[in-house]
Structure formats: C-alpha cells, structure tokens
Amino acid sequence: MQTHETQLRHWICEIGRRLHARGFVAAADGNISVRLDASRFLCTPSGMSKGHMRPVDIVVADSKGNRLAGERRVTSEFFTHLAAYEERPEMQAVIHAHPTYATTLTLMDIDTTPPVLPELIMSLVALPRAPYATPGSAEGADAIRALIKRFDALLLDRHGAIVVGADLQDAYMKMERLESAAQTLYLAHLLGRPAALSPDKIAKLMAATVPPDAPVPPYPF
Ligand SMILES: [Zn+2]
C-alpha cells in the first residue's frame, strides 16, 4: 500500500517526464510542486532534468522555502510557487515550464488576451502575461501575484509559463492547454491577426466557466 506522499512523489516524476517529452523543459528548466499537508510541500530539486527524476530526488519544503527533508536543494523558483499558493489557497499544485511557443509570444510582445479561441475561454478563460522578473529571484513571486489570483495559467514575460491546479494532473493539463493555444496563436499571427469572437458567443463560452445557476462574468479583457 503506497502512502499519499509516495504517490505524490511518483506523480511529480511522471509529470516531469511528460514535460520533458513534450519539450516544455530543456536541461534543468522548470519546476513542479504540490501541497503535502497544511504547512509542507513536495517540490522538484534545482539543477536536475525534470525528465529523469526519481521519487527520492523530490524535496520536502516548508511555507518559507526551507528544506525539511531530502538530499537536494529546493528549486530556486519555489518562492514563485509559494506566492501562487498564498494567492490561491484552494489550489494543490503548481507547475512552471518554458514551453517554446508561449515564451516566443512574450518575446514578440503579442497580446494573448483577445478572445479568439473558444476552448481556451472555456478552460483557462484567458492567457494574461505577468511582467518580467529575473528568473529564480524573489521578484518572480511579486510579478505573478495580481494575475494568479484571477487566472489559473499565466505567461511569464520572456520566461515560459506558470499554472495552478486542483491536483498535479490538473495543473499538467493546463500547461498542455496553454502551450497548445500559444502554438495556434503563434501560427495565426504569422498569417495575420485573428478576429475576436462576437460578444454573444463570448457570453455563451463564459457561461461554461461557472456553475449552472451562477451569474455569468464578463470576459475579463
Ligand atoms: Zn524558469
């Protein structure tokens, strides 16, 4: 019988393999974390390929970023994860990766918030971009706070993307959705400028983002 922690360690390694296999992380890029209990987190170690981690490589950290258990160092970007957990206490997992199309759109200053992709609106609502911060620094935490409070998936200026999820699998799916949308938007912008959906179509899509009897929020951009 596997313990809860053992299962989570396994899933972090599995999702690391998927991120690596999809080309969302190169070399030692990216990081993955999950809540272990009220005050502890499991997170990926710094300086290690996310495609080749073993459960024993995963580190236990507290809510200040201190290592509580494990041989390796806590990822330098864990402070950004902590900011996401602080702003979204209902979320259980955070993934940061460097998917190519998402990063490319930020390099070219392409606005990814116009409502053009129905599946994106129904799942993530929109892809806003957090301002630039030095990777691995405390600035990264402050850079995401305002937007991660309102959105599950963000592009990070010149530095990939970050997502929050109800569990590790949910967070991974959001990262795939984000990069798929980024790839489509990249191709569309090569050919021209994609037209926005009409207000009535947007309202129907936004209705899918809330429970059946809840008021439908406006599209936020
Ligand atoms: Zn990074």
Task: Explain this structure.
- The longest helix is centred in the C-terminal third of the chain and has 24 residues, at 168-191.
- Strand 7 (153-156) and strand 8 form a beta hairpin.
- The protein is built from seven helices and eight strands, in the order αββββαβααβαββαα.
- It has a single domain, classed as L-fuculose-1-phosphate Aldolase.
- With 221 residues, it is α+β, with helices and mostly antiparallel strands.
- The structure holds zinc ion.
- Zinc ion (ZN) binds next to loops.
Key words describing this protein structure:
single chain; 221 residues; L-fuculose-1-phosphate Aldolase; 7 helices; 8 strands; 39% helix
Describe this structure in a few short sentences.
The protein has 221 residues and is an alpha+beta fold.
The backbone outline, from C-alpha atoms, is globular
The CATH architecture comes to 3-Layer(aba) Sandwich
Mean pLDDT: 97
List low-pLDDT spans: none
Query: What is the percentage of strand-forming residues?
Result: 5-15%
| Classification by helices and strands | alpha+beta
> Terminal Cα separation, in Å?
48 Å
Give the helix level as a range of percent: 25-40%
Number of helices: 7
Order of helices and strands: HEEEEHEHHEHEEHH
Radius of gyration: 17 Å
Ligands and ions found? zinc ion
| CATH overall fold name | L-fuculose-1-phosphate Aldolase
Count the beta strands: 8
How many separate domains make up the residues? 1
Q: Briefly, what CATH class?
A: Alpha Beta
The CATH superfamily bears the name Class II aldolase/adducin N-terminal domain
Largest sheet: 8 strands, mixed
